[in-house]
Amino acid sequence: MPRSVRRVLLGAPIATARSEHEKVGALGGLTIFAADAMSSVAYGPEEVVLVLALAGTAGLNYALPICIALGVLIWIVATSYRQTVVEYPSGGGAYVVARENLSPLASHIAGGALLTDYVLTVSVSVSAGIAAITSAWPALYDYRVDIAVACVVMIALVNLRGVRESAAAFALPVYGFVACAFLVIIVGLYRMWTGSITPSEQTQAAQGLVPLQGVGLFLILRAFSSGCASLTGLEAVANGVQAFREPRGVRAASVMVLMATVLSATVLGVGLLIHGLHIAPIPEITVLSQIGEKVFGRGFMYFLLQIETMLILVFAANTSFSDFPRLSAFMARDGYMPRQMANLGDRLVYQNGIVVLSALACVLIIIFKGEVSSLIPLYAVGVFTAFTISQTGMVIHWVRKQGPHWHHKVAVNGLGAVATGVVLIVIAVTKFALGAWIVCLLIPMLVLAFRAIGRHYSHVAARLSLENAKEVAPIKNLNLLLVGGMHRGTLQALEYARALGGPVRAVHVETGGEELPRIRRMWTDWETDIRLEILPAPFRNVTEPLVDYIQQVKAEEGFDVVTVILPEFVVDNWWQSLLHNHSALWLQFLLSRIPGVAVLNMRYKL
Amino acid sequence: MPRSVRRVLLGAPIATARSEHEKVGALGGLTIFAADAMSSVAYGPEEVVLVLALAGTAGLNYALPICIALGVLIWIVATSYRQTVVEYPSGGGAYVVARENLSPLASHIAGGALLTDYVLTVSVSVSAGIAAITSAWPALYDYRVDIAVACVVMIALVNLRGVRESAAAFALPVYGFVACAFLVIIVGLYRMWTGSITPSEQTQAAQGLVPLQGVGLFLILRAFSSGCASLTGLEAVANGVQAFREPRGVRAASVMVLMATVLSATVLGVGLLIHGLHIAPIPEITVLSQIGEKVFGRGFMYFLLQIETMLILVFAANTSFSDFPRLSAFMARDGYMPRQMANLGDRLVYQNGIVVLSALACVLIIIFKGEVSSLIPLYAVGVFTAFTISQTGMVIHWVRKQGPHWHHKVAVNGLGAVATGVVLIVIAVTKFALGAWIVCLLIPMLVLAFRAIGRHYSHVAARLSLENAKEVAPIKNLNLLLVGGMHRGTLQALEYARALGGPVRAVHVETGGEELPRIRRMWTDWETDIRLEILPAPFRNVTEPLVDYIQQVKAEEGFDVVTVILPEFVVDNWWQSLLHNHSALWLQFLLSRIPGVAVLNMRYKL
């Protein structure tokens, strides 16, 4: 029954041999990896405006310059990463680059930073997507947390089915959103140029904004930091090169360039519209919703824009569903994450990673009540840490490897490293008190955990290694059959115990029923070879006398292992099983904790 | 750790041999069994008044006659039961009397009725106890469900510690309440007689009650039915004769008489006060609270009465905690309830019964939001069913047994049977639509369940019986060692498998790692006797190829049983165990469902 539910939800198992077929081309890759980067347009500029508005209309004048700065930064990072994907076609995420070129510690920091940010990407994207919808239909605002959690579960299910099907499912929202965004920018700029729209009353009302503070450098930097959320997702391609068809590096690099072009153009366009239309924040209405309403009016195109925004954002979370499990599996194979994260499920996906990611994201959404602005301060610290480490690693890589044009390559990655490093410091400082401290605390804790896990696995590997191993001395084993009473099942169990071959003894633990004389009598009637020991249990607890007896046998008769045979009666259906003691299960649990005891579960049906 | 928590909460285990010491004398028995009967004074008369008030002040005039009728009924039932306890000193509950003298069906009806009523006793008593407190401190009214559930859990814990300690714990509330109740009646009647209290303004206001209906026979009978809740608990002694020290019957009979005397006197006294003081229902204030306030004023004695009422009611639930587990154990030993209900725990109590009872009672409290008036219609149907069956059974008993004075004994039990039978019909008819239908539906369902369980156990017993059993043919067994990889643990497992004695084979399921050539090579290095089979698993699922192989081996090589040896690596602590696959556990679960497969769990530590 659970298996057939699983089949319907996730599809039939896929054979290991088919794994190459599940890879994507450049267009498929764009679909999967672009959603995250593209979608951040929906909240990046918005957060810039929200921060600047603290200084009133004077602050809002800085929105356009910040958007231009963001556009430039996007190009720097993308150019820098282009070199990485070509050089690391088997996956060149910050973790791998740091591991190859810097130190294990740097790779652990990068890994922890990225994993943190992947979880945040899911929470932020889904929350922002729901915000797009509640801007258009405010009645849904109160249900935002429930809707968001349902979305996360839905994305998890799609991903548990496998990667190829994701690309197909996610094509419409990604390209639809890009088309809508370009349309709103082009139409908006054209109408502004022709003068057919001007700042309306609503916005003029917003211009009466009370400045809570003056326009200072810190405020501008904080606004810029918030806007940096737009850059999250750029690194996704580098981490996921593995998902491309050959030649992976070339396909990934072209996706990188395409993404950067579209993304920076969109950020700039939105910046121009915010500037030209004098957009100011309105509670519970997103900036993109305001722009759409101004440009298109509250008609079909406006609602289409909102729905597309929601779709791309909700589906943007999908990028993390490709990357989080993949990075976890990388790290698990290196021995720094629980090994289960590297298990390929029967649909050829890292199902444990998908489940862990969705659970963590749902927790964040619930804790922060699905509010994007509460989540944003935690965001981007991780990704800029990873950017900086990764680009620094690339600089070291070129210096060591040299080869053609290496000076030029060092310069490109060096610029990337410096730029992202500076931005990282700016983000950490300006958003520390607002929530970035959580991430600044979490990443070192994750690093400690990775190292503890790594130590454990190498310790176990060393202990298990066959190098210098000696032959194991022969083991002396006693088979001990636990007899509850005398019945046909006992006869079967005795015959089975005999069939095992080694020495056999039977024990009955006397818990105070009136069975004892009957058992003794019937034993002599039915069994001659095997001796029956009676163990008194004054406290009606089977385990203690049994364990005492086992210890005694091992000490006095020199057995290394005692194999306890627990016969269990199999009933026909679930309700009948409620009518029988499950003492075998409980005994097995307790006995398995005792060294030198093996437990044999023998089920008989009559 | 869980064991030490258990010790602190429940105490150290008690040896079976000590069981006689846990019995109680007459006074201890009164404490344990009287609480239920006595405490019903707190809600019985109240429910009479609530129903009568539907007909306004005219209706309230019938309160005293109904209380007199209840007092008479108490005496009839008690006299009738006195004969039962003497005749059945090993426990003469309705279930046993019906089993011995009527038919199995009658005993099942009695059993189901009593079990239902025991659960209701806990819910009603605890809810009424909390109502006494919220009458005095209305601020607690909103927390009544939480407080009630906490009380049930507390009583369950006390009972899980054992019966003797309960008698000690429950002495103060029982005798304290009886003293308070007698005091309020004596002082109240004296002050009424001397004219120092008269119906006050509050009550005169209540006299302006709007009659919703006229005083009809149905209403009076319904009020009487509700009042019959006062009789619940009378049967407790008969069920629990076993808990008394020898001579059980005599001690139990004197407790019966004592209880009936005190109970009927209290009901009559409260009836007189209701009549004399013109008490009418006030929302969220109990009748006993109104009487107390009138007699003593809102001073120390009033609050003491409320607290004592609460204590006896909450502790009255304890009667059911003695009886429900005991009756369940009776029925389990007869094979009509799951056998686990008859397990004596390490504190010499039927712990499963205690746990089941408290869980059901909490569910009822939560469903009915801790409102006594909502629970009352479900109540008393069960207990009067049991009364009627039990007294009818006694009539048959005397007719069959005869002996000295048997005509007189038949008359006493016959009167009891007729009286309780008539009341049962009255209760079922007048309260059917208000909730009694639930119980009228539940009891037959329980009876069906008892019979199904009985059939299952006799079927199993017949199949397991050694009568006409033949010798079991010798079994051919193959030991199959599951090898995950080549390491020191595998060497130990191989040596262990060899020590078992029978034929051994090793299998490795190939799930697509790059381990295969390494395993083959190392196998030939380390092992010569035992053959290694490699099973391909294209869907990365270990179970299916393994099961196929087992079926094949059984079919082709004629093995009756395949014992699968699952080696499992033991780690040092819980977090390390998270870092290892628990595939052994899951495999064991799946394999144990396959006929002819035994699972051997072998844990190794390095």
How would you portray this structure in words?
The structure is a homodimer of 606-residue chains. Chain A has 606 residues and is mostly helical. Helices cover 67% and strands 6% of the residues of chain A. Chain A is built from 24 helices and five strands. The first copy, chain A, has helices at 2-10, 26-39, 44-52, 56-60, 63-87, 94-101, 104-136, 144-161, 163-194, 201-207, 217-227, 236-239, 248-277, 287-296, 300-333, 351-367, 372-375, 381-401, 406-464, 488-500, 516-526, 543-557, 574-578, 583-591; strands at 477-482, 504-510, 532-536, 561-569, 597-604. In chain A, strands 3-2-1-4-5 form a five-stranded parallel sheet, sandwiched between helices. In chain A, α21 (516-526) links the parallel β2 and β3 (532-536). Chain A starts with a helix and ends with a strand. The mean pLDDT of chain A is 86. β5 of chain A pairs antiparallel with β5 of chain B.
How would you briefly describe this protein structure?
2 copies of one chain form a homodimer. With 606 residues, the first copy, chain A, is mostly helical. Chain A contains 24 helices and 5 strands.
Key terms for this structure?
homodimer; 606 residues; mainly alpha; 5-stranded parallel beta sheet; 24 helices; 5 strands; elongated
Topology, pairings included?
2 copies of one chain form a homodimer.
Chain A: H1 2-10, H2 26-39, H3 44-52, H4 56-60, H5 63-87, H6 94-101, H7 104-136, H8 144-161, H9 163-194, H10 201-207, H11 217-227, H12 236-239, H13 248-277, H14 287-296, H15 300-333, H16 351-367, H17 372-375, H18 381-401, H19 406-464, E1 477-482, H20 488-500, E2 504-510, H21 516-526, E3 532-536, H22 543-557, E4 561-569, H23 574-578, H24 583-591, E5 597-604
Helix pairs in contact in A: 2-9, 2-13, 2-15, 3-11, 5-11, 5-13, 5-19, 6-7, 6-18, 7-8, 7-15, 7-16, 7-18, 7-19, 8-9, 8-15, 8-16, 9-13, 9-14, 9-15, 11-19, 13-14, 14-15, 15-16, 18-19
